[in-house]
Amino acid sequence: MRLTLLSFACFAVASFTAYALADDAPPKIKVLLITGGHGFETAPFFDVFEKNPVISFTSAKHSQNADAYERPDLLTYDVVVLYDMPKEITEPQKAKFLSLFEKGTGVVVLHHALVSYQHWPEYEHIIGGRYPEEDGKGGHVTPEVGYQHGVEVPVVILARDHPVTAGVGDFTITDEIYWGFRVQPGVTPLLTTTHPQSGKPLAWTREQGKSRLVYLQLGHGPSAYDNPNYHRLVANSIRWVARH
């Protein structure tokens, strides 16, 4: 009987400790992942977020212009991740987008979201750069401005002591490169490359209003999504802009 009572007591203490630890665990970072305007392989891309144990995410897709910003719960998220490429944004949608920075919502901008809103200069200022399309239609490659898929890209860490690059060393990734994109002065570069044709830098940070923002140029297709360094950079970016 004594052993039984002792075993029960140990079990009760262990159960209470586990419950207390679970109860004290920090809440997950609430992420809104916005897509639309550019195709991608959904399953391997969403896997980057599904395997991140510190976030819960909701996927939203623009159906007309930038209408994902019209959701009534927009400002309830800790972080908004942009993997979208819409061409147009209405004035009310602009106001909703700008409200993120008044609230202090963290923003992570990935890959082709650098191309969005060619006729809205403030967007370029906010995210820190732009891939310019003269005709606004995309797909036109020139020596001055263009892209190439399936490139072995050597990635070099510039800001080795920044939280976004924590746990990441120099690496190689099979990805799409851009060249001829503009980068605004005042950004903090995080990554670069020794690839002679790729634009540089490959990632940067800046602050807008009350918000932190990260732009990461990497991220086209499963060969990039599956790279563990890409997972780490995206996860670190989310944590940093969320101030966790």
Please explain how this structure is put together.
The protein is α/β, with parallel strands linked by helices and 244 residues long. The chain has a single domain, classed as Class I glutamine amidotransferase (GATase) domain (Rossmann fold, 3-Layer(aba) Sandwich). The protein is 29% helix and 28% strand. It has six helices and eleven strands. The chain has helices at residues 2-24, 42-50, 91-103, 121-127, 222-225, 228-242; strands at 29-36, 55-61, 79-84, 106-110, 129-130, 146-157, 171-179, 182-183, 188-193, 203-208, 211-216. The strands form two sheets. A nine-stranded mixed β-sheet has the order 2-1-3-4-11-10-9-6-7. The protein has a two-stranded antiparallel ribbon with strand order 5-8. The chain is globular and about 45 Å long. The N and C termini lie far apart (48 Å). Mean pLDDT is 91; it is low at 1-22.
Summarize the structure.
The protein has 244 residues and is of the alpha/beta class.
